[in-house]
Specification:
The chain is mostly helical and about 80 residues long. The chain has a domain at about 20-65. Helix content is about 55%, strand content about 0%. The protein is built from three helices and no strands. The chain has helices at about 20-30, 35-65, 75-80. It is elongated, with a radius of gyration of 23 Å.
């Protein structure tokens, strides 16, 4: 069974190399998940870059807040006051 895929964005091909044993295990995993190795790779790239983007944004925020001070320390009652 073949599925046609229509991309709505700019898609580029990449060439990778891997040990035959590792590649076969990855293909078997893809079969078990009812997907393709190509799709798993695209999802991995998306996860990798989104994690890095979140980390980069967090680190930038921490740099910007470096001089911010809360005015504490606070007592338990002060922290729970409404």
């Amino acid at each position: 069974m073949h599925t046609k895929v229509v991309y709505t964005c700019d898609v580029r091909n990449v060439t990778l190399s891997a040990e035959a044993r590792v590649l076969e295990r990855a293909r078997e995993l893809a079969r078990k998940r009812s997907t393709t190795l190509n799709r798993m790779f695209r999802e991995w790239l998306a996860d990798l870059t989104s994690d890095r983007l979140r980390r980069d944004r967090y680190e930038e925020l921490m740099r910007r807040l470096d001089g911010a001070r809360s005015g504490g320390p606070f007592t338990r009652d002060q922290m729970n006051a409404r």
